[in-house]
Design a protein that fits this description.
Blueprint: H1 2-11, H2 21-34, H3 37-60, H4 69-86, H5 95-114, H6 122-142, H7 148-155, H8 159-166, H9 198-213, H10 218-229, H11 234-241, H12 245-264
Helix pairs in contact: 1-3, 2-3, 3-4, 3-5, 4-5, 5-6, 6-7, 6-8, 7-8, 11-12
Length: 268
């Protein structure tokens, strides 16, 4: 495609030396300002083709975040086309210093609209949209990517809101719990997460039951210990204390009812 356009451009005497992409781009954009209609569109197509690898390179930096690279490259090329059409050479800025942030903004908008795995609050989504627009304006004005503080001042919002929105990129694809904390480490992110600790519940139960157990008879405490601490059957307990299995069942039921009633008292 580029070769075909170049041949046509040479024939029309608008194709500069392509060995220096920046210089060639600058010359073409200056000519585009003075051109109109089909002539202008032809020159803009040449600028896009001349810089399409830059757009693809920007897109590759966002791969692995849940959207196919082919789709990202198409979106990046769309951002490049917008940058070509909106760029103002008379401001004396280098084209790529304006185009690259514009391409990034287009990709971020695509992620915002299509790529959320964990969708953030609406306020953050709206702030990201505002940041994308502000970045385009500030890049044209400053000739470089704006800093978060400059974006906040341009939008008239506090810096924390901008930082929060910029930090929401992790919502595209959350980090895997199986991923190592850092390259070469065997320790995984999931190992750092808290787990339910049943020991706390057991300690709380013991603290609540201790004064109540003290009021039980020796035989009642013995039956509870054999049944729940040692896992003995009712028949085994009956044989030890000299009663039938049925009597052990009745004693156990009565003891548990006594404990339950004591725990439900307001003082307890």
């Amino acid at each position: 495609m580029l070769q075909k356009l170049a041949e046509k451009a040479r024939h029309d005497d608008i194709w500069p030396d392509p060995s220096d992409r920046r210089a060639a781009t600058a010359q073409l954009l200056e000519r585009a300002v003075a051109a109109e209609g089909d002539k202008r569109r032809q020159i803009e197509e040449l600028v896009v083709e001349l810089n399409v690898e830059v757009a693809r390179d920007v897109a590759r930096r966002y791969r692995g975040r849940g959207i196919d690279l082919d789709d990202l490259e198409q979106v990046a090329c769309l951002g490049l086309v917008k940058a070509v059409r909106r760029f103002e050479p008379d401001k004396g800025r280098d084209f790529l210093s304006y185009a690259v942030p514009t391409i990034r903004g287009e990709i971020r908008r695509h992620f915002r609209d299509r790529g959320w795995v964990v969708r953030p609050p609406r306020s953050i989504q709206e702030m990201q949209a505002a940041i994308s627009g502000a970045e385009e304006a500030l890049v044209q004005e400053l000739g470089r990517s704006p800093r978060p503080r400059e974006i906040a001042a341009h939008l008239g919002v506090d810096l924390d809101s901008v930082l929060e929105a910029l930090g929401a990129s992790g919502c595209f694809v959350p980090s895997s719990l199986d991923a190592p904390l850092s390259p070469g480490e065997s320790n995984e992110l999931g190992h750092q997460l808290g787990a339910e600790e049943f020991g706390f519940e057991a300690a709380e139960a013991r603290a609540a039951l201790e004064p109540i157990l003290a009021d039980l008879t020796d035989r009642e405490r013995l039956i509870l210990e054999r049944r729940f601490a040692q896992g003995r059957t009712q028949a085994e307990i009956g044989a030890e204390i000299g009663v039938t299995q049925m009597q052990v069942s009745r004693l156990l039921t009565a003891t548990l009812a006594k404990l339950r009633a004591a725990l439900e008292e307001p003082a307890a």
